[in-house]
Specification:
The longest helix has about 35 residues. This protein is about 50% helix and about 10% strand. It has 16 helices and 7 strands. The chain is of the alpha/beta class and about 350 residues long. α4 runs antiparallel to α5, α4 runs parallel beside α6 and α8 runs parallel beside α15.
Length: about 350
């Protein structure tokens, strides 16, 4: 075995190390935040799913083909994608450019572009391993929210006969039900879903009804205080203005929180700096490896570890356990014995009264 192969094996072995504080979590203690990395692993044939940059480039391309964006604007946005570091700002500007000047979300050409690039998603699912792992966690009570526009998880879940439901922040009733754990297979799309123009918003100002609703904000912030968020396939999520408005900047004492983020370690210096920075937000950054193809296997193994955790009710004696049945039998016999004793006392009492 040559040195290169040994190095690769060591890297893979290291990528399989898990924080005990994470894998000992109960599934219902976690809230999974899934980003473009999940979609990229599942449907690599759709470039728009690979990253925010790829998604914006694909939208610009679709806008040019559909002739819904002026050629001058097309050229300007292509330059911005290359030069601007903050791609979320570019995305905000792009959606505004293809929306009514009044700021309404419907109608808009942005949705048409997304429908163009996400056409027939179900036909592009090549490797569902990550989705299967997420579903196994959802089966056991893990909640899921996403910044993605696509519904690959819901499509795959429905194929597995799960009652999947796509939710967005515009539907207050559904959001409250989801946040309180009443929609087990609900996936909250905080940017909305490409199939529903009414729920698609990139700018936080579009969610004023949400951020100014104390009931909604309270339940969402309570999730960030009470659940451990697990960021998977997320690169820009913490810089996402909507995520920041809902969670990061509205919850005090973030350092006391314990959340997790799984990332690619391309550069050691950058990785460890990122790790230190994220601790300020109460987020523990861990690496799944130095190659993206390590990602699906890591997520599978991580989910397997978490799903193996015994339920907190497992040791509790109840009627579904052998001990519980035995105790029920004991109780039944005790009641019967007590009944016999009571009957005897009553007979003695009758005899004494009759003498």
């Amino acid at each position: 075995m040559d040195s290169v192969e040994k190095t690769t094996n060591r890297s893979e072995q290291k990528s399989r190390k898990f924080l005990k504080s994470l894998i000992r979590k109960q599934p219902q203690e976690l809230l999974l935040v899934i980003g473009t990395g999940v979609s990229a692993a599942v449907a690599p044939g759709i470039p728009a799913l690979c990253s925010w940059r790829s998604c914006i480039e694909a939208v610009i391309e679709a806008a040019e083909q559909l002739e819904v964006l002026h050629p001058g604007d097309v050229a300007e946005f292509r330059q911005k994608v290359v030069k601007d570091r903050d791609l979320l700002v570019v995305a905000h500007d792009l959606i505004r450019k293809m929306s009514p000047r009044t700021g309404d979300t419907k109608p808009n050409f942005f949705q048409d572009c997304l429908m163009e690039i996400f056409d027939n998603l179900e036909e592009h699912i090549q490797d569902p391993l990550v989705l299967q792992s997420i579903l196994s966690l959802m089966d056991r009570g893990t909640m899921v929210l996403t910044t993605n526009y696509d519904n690959l998880l819901e499509i795959f879940g429905q194929q597995q006969n799960k009652p999947m439901e796509s939710l967005d922040l515009k539907d207050k009733t559904k959001v409250l039900q989801w946040a309180r754990g009443h929609i087990r297979y609900g996936v909250l799309h905080i940017h909305g879903l490409y199939t529903d123009p009414c729920g698609m918003v990139l700018d936080p100002s579009g969610y004023k009804d949400v951020t100014q609703d104390p009931e909604v904000m309270e339940v969402l912030q309570d999730l960030y205080r009470s659940k451990s968020f697990l960021f998977v396939g997320c690169g820009e999520t913490l810089r996402d203005q909507i995520f920041q408005a809902l969670f990061l900047y509205s919850v005090p004492d973030r350092v006391a929180l314990e959340h997790y983020m799984v990332v690619l370690k391309e550069n050691e210096d950058h990785f460890f700096k990122h790790q230190a920075d994220m601790l300020l937000h109460g987020i523990k950054v861990v690496s799944y490896g130095d190659r993206f193809d390590c990602f699906p296997g890591y997520v599978r193994d991580l989910a397997t570890h978490i799903c193996r955790q015994p339920s907190p009710d497992a040791d509790r004696v109840d009627s579904t356990t052998l001990l519980g049945n035995a105790c029920q039998d004991c109780a039944k016999r005790k009641l019967e014995e007590n009944g016999i004793e009571v009957a005897k006392k009553l007979r003695h009492s009758d005899d004494a009264g009759g003498s």
